Amino acid sequence: xxxxxxxxxxxxxxxxxxxxxxxxxxxxxxxxxxxxxxxxxxxxxxxxxxxxxxxxxxxxxxxxxxxxxxxxxxxxxxxxxxxxxxxxxxxxxxxxxxxxxxxxxxxxxxxxxxxxxxxxxxxxxxxxxxxxxxxxxxxxxxxxxxxxxxxxxxxxxxxxxxxxxxxxxxxxxxxxxxxxxxxxxxxxxxxxxxxxxxxxxxxxxxxxxxxxxxxxxxxxxxxxxxxxxxxxxxxxxxxxxxxxxxxxxxxxxxxxxxxxxxxxxxxxxxxxxxxxxxxxxxxxxxxxxxxxxxxxxxxxxxxxxxxxxxxxxxxxxxxxxxxxxxxxxxxxxxxxxxxxxxxxxxxxxxxxxxxxxxxxxxxxxxxxxxxxxxxxxxxxxxxxxxxxxxxxxxxxxxxxxxxxxxxxxxxxxxxxxxxxxxxxxxxxxxxxxxxxxxxxxxxxxxxxxxxxxxxxxx
Length: 458
Ligand code: PEP
Ligand code: CO
Fold this sequence. Notes:
Elements: H1 26-38, H2 45-59, E1 64-69, H3 80-101, E2 105-110, E3 123-126, E4 129-132, H4 146-149, H5 154-175, H6 190-194, H7 199-222, H8 226-231, E5 236-240, H9 244-249, E6 251-253, E7 260-262, E8 267-270, H10 280-285, E9 292-296, H11 302-312, E10 321-325, H12 332-345, E11 351-354, E12 362-363, E13 369-370, H13 373-390, E14 394-400, H14 433-453
The chain binds phosphoenolpyruvate and cobalt (II) ion (CO).
Cobalt (II) ion binds near residues 71 and 427.
């Protein structure tokens, strides 16, 4: 046995750091970190512990995780309409999934801090000019100018305040009955007209929401307890824990609990490019009590995964690890089974989640990054099948999506010729409102079919 090295919120600084940010003024970074250390947490340990309990239930097949939001959240998008639209699409997708899967859904947004992006190249060259790549609004700005691309530590404070404002609005909406699931007439159907949904999709949603409300009333008439659980609308936040200055500044102990909590978000995840076992990211995350997501691409081996599980969750605690596989539709059938079998052999408790976005990138002849609705759906369907055939369960889905009518992915109503119309993403292409809702119906149908065939409980 290799002795476990002592951990502290700053021990990551002794490890090699992938995607390290090239700040040019260490004193300014230190000043910002000191400030962030003294500011209140963005989330609480109670919320984190509750999410961990819900994830533990999802690991037993009793709940399903829906995680979604922008690839790169923009600070300028901290606006009421944009936030409301994100919540609406997550809420509406979750209702469709509850109906299909007959399980409560855990709603987790990629928001209130999804401001830092890993990049495949540290620099970008245009017309002979080479500048640092855009690493997300927490680090620098997207405009292709030297001043915008300089890593600015003050953006960590800007990110913190905008994450706080976003969370404040989300909390107020949730607490204020933003969506009372007993009243489908309140779920803002006018929203559908704006989005020009095809009539079948609108009718399908309307009938699903009415059936759900009816079922809730029926269960309440019977005096069943789980009704509250199904009808309470909670949202949790998540983001990639990439900028370790920012994350560690908010990693601390809280009164009357043991251990350290990372308090910028409920569910941080480690990206495909930063999951090196001996790297700085795994070092920070091994010391926190939060549940932690790990992205796994086709190059991940069963040994890599088992070593990461041992490092990040040595006691095999329930609700702690969310494995987010992102293999690509063409590779998932071959790449996923060895990982699932490895984790089973190791007797490890995890929640298996499919990210069908990051393995399915394409570039159009015109140079736009896009993804196809069909590939995305195919990766999810294939993941359901792989898990069912191995006796495990796909316990969640992870999307890049938006509640707005962007034109970034093809299929589900859009062709390649439409992409130019409203292509807004600062990073990867997202499903638009209609595509996301349609995706949830396809998944719900699959879940319902699996229930009927008895391949999943209940
Ligand atoms: C992302 O989720 O935006 C991302 C960069 O994913 P991955 O680490 O899986 O490539
Ligand atoms: Co992305």
